[in-house]
Amino acid sequence: MSAPDAEFYSEERWENWLDRLREEDIDPEDEESARLLLNLQDDVAIAVAKILTAYTDEEIDGEQTLSELAEIRDVVLSDPEIENEDTLMLVDGVQTSLVAVFYSAERFVAEGPVEDGTVEEHIRHAAAAEGEEDLDAALGHASAAGTQLIDGDSLDIGVTEEIEYGLVTEWVNGLDSLREALADPEVIEPDEE
């Protein structure tokens, strides 16, 4: 099995996005700012989707897939150097959303899709576990839902309207980006308007 020539994601790419955020006056209520943050999240989800596609197409093996995922995860989830506290908080929100993306992708490669339950059932279980402050169980259920999405199941985003806003809704937001990326892995450039 040979590795594809292309690099899936780089620290430089992530830093380009952060540079753009540092330069802008980010306001989550502003449509352009919100789009920029979503594009940042989607860009990482697309990179993860491309790794998963290379894995399912047998272009790379499980070990390399996990290595590629860990490499991106380490870059994306590291503490960013951003002085503006509001911007830092917004980037932290994007990072939080992506936690479930990475866990789901790694779990899919290690174990395959979870067979029991539906995507929505796992999300409801995750929300219940979060309500009981069992965040490990919550992330376990969220990543179970994620493995099913990677396997081609659908997600009714309306399920988030039934649950209290918190980590699980952030994670579902990330999983929705991954679902879209798997369906249409269009690259988003940091300098796109």
UniProtKB/TrEMBL annotation:
Protein name (database record): DUF2150 family protein
Pfam families: DUF2150
The organism's place on the tree of life at top rank: Archaea
InterPro entries to which the protein is assigned, alphabetical: UCP022079
